[in-house]
Amino acid sequence: MKTISIVLAEDHHVVRQGLRALLAAEADLEVVGEASSGLDVGDLVERVKPDVLVVDFVMPGLNAPDIIRRVARVSPRTRALVLSMHANPAYVVEAIQSGAAGYVLKGSSAAELVRAIRAVADGSRHLSPPLSEEMVEAYAQRAVPTGLDLYRTLTQREREVLHLAAEGQTSAQIGARLNISPRTVEVHRANLLRKLRLRGQSDLVRYAVGRGILTVDD
C-alpha cells in the first residue's frame, strides 16, 4: 500500500492538531509538514515535495489561490486540496482556476476529507457536497469578466505586502516578516495602492474583505 505524504497549511493550531490526529489514524496517510502562514507554504512544499497539500482558503500572508500557483511552480507533482468554511461558488471557482484539485468544506465529515485526499492523490478532482462540477461550471460561465482583474497586475511581493498590511501589520513588522527594509515595504505598498486604485488603509481593508483576503470574522 502506497503512503500518501501530506502537508497541512492551516493557521489555527487546534484545527491543525485535529487534522493531524485524524490523518494519523489512516495507515496510508502521513503528514510530513505543517505551516501556519501562507508565506511559509511554498518553501515547505519545495523542501518536502508532498503528494498532497491540504490548505485553508484564508491564510495569513497569502491565501490558497496564490499559494497553489506558487506550489505548482516549485513542486508540480503536489496536488492541492482546499479546505474551507466558504461554500460560495466564487471561492470554489477561484480555487479550481488557480489549480486546486479539490475543495472540501470544513463542515464535512472526517471520512469525506480522507476520501478527498485519496482521490486527488490518485489524480482525480474532488468537490465536497453540496458542491458539484455542474455548479462550478455554471458559475464560471456566468462570471464573465467585466475588465482587467487589477489583482493580477500585482507582483508576488506586492501581494504579500497587501495581505500583511490588510491584517494590520506595520511596515516594520512586514519588513521583518519578509526580510526587507520598512522603506522597501512602503514602496511596495505605494505601488500596490496605485495599481489597485486605492487611497489608503481603509480602502485596502475593504478591498481585502471583498477579495476574500480577509474574512468578516478576522
Could you explain the architecture of this structure?
The structure is a single chain. With 218 residues, this protein is of the alpha/beta class. It has 2 domains: 4-142, Rossmann fold, CATH 3.40.50.2300; 150-211, Winged helix-like DNA-binding domain superfamily/Winged helix DNA-binding domain (Arc Repressor Mutant, subunit A, Orthogonal Bundle). It has helices at residues 13-24, 38-48, 64-74, 89-98, 110-121, 133-142, 156-166, 171-178, 182-196, 201-211; strands spanning 4-9, 29-35, 52-56, 79-84, 102-105, 126-127. It has a 6-stranded parallel sheet with strand order 2-1-3-4-5-6, with helices on both faces. β4 (79-84), α4 and β5 form a beta-alpha-beta unit.
What does this entry show, briefly?
The chain has helices at residues 13-24, 38-48, 64-74, 89-98, 110-121, 133-142, 156-166, 171-178, 182-196, 201-211, and strands at residues 4-9, 29-35, 52-56, 79-84, 102-105, 126-127.
Tags for this model:
218 residues, alpha/beta, Rossmann fold, Arc Repressor Mutant, subunit A, six-stranded parallel beta sheet
CATH topology of the largest domain: Rossmann fold
Biggest sheet character: 6 strands, parallel
The N- and C-terminal alpha carbons lie at a distance of: 41 Å
The structural class is alpha/beta
Number of strands: 6
| Count of helix runs | 10
**SSE order:** EHEHEHEHEHEHHHHH
How are the strands of the biggest sheet laid out side by side?
2-1-3-4-5-6
- Integer average pLDDT: 91
Low-confidence stretches: none
CATH-level-2 architecture of the largest domain: 3-Layer(aba) Sandwich
Report the CATH C-level class of the largest domain.
Alpha Beta
Count the domains.
Answer: 2
Which descriptor suits the 3D outline? Answer: globular
Radius of gyration (Å): 17 Å
CATH superfamily of the largest domain: Response regulator
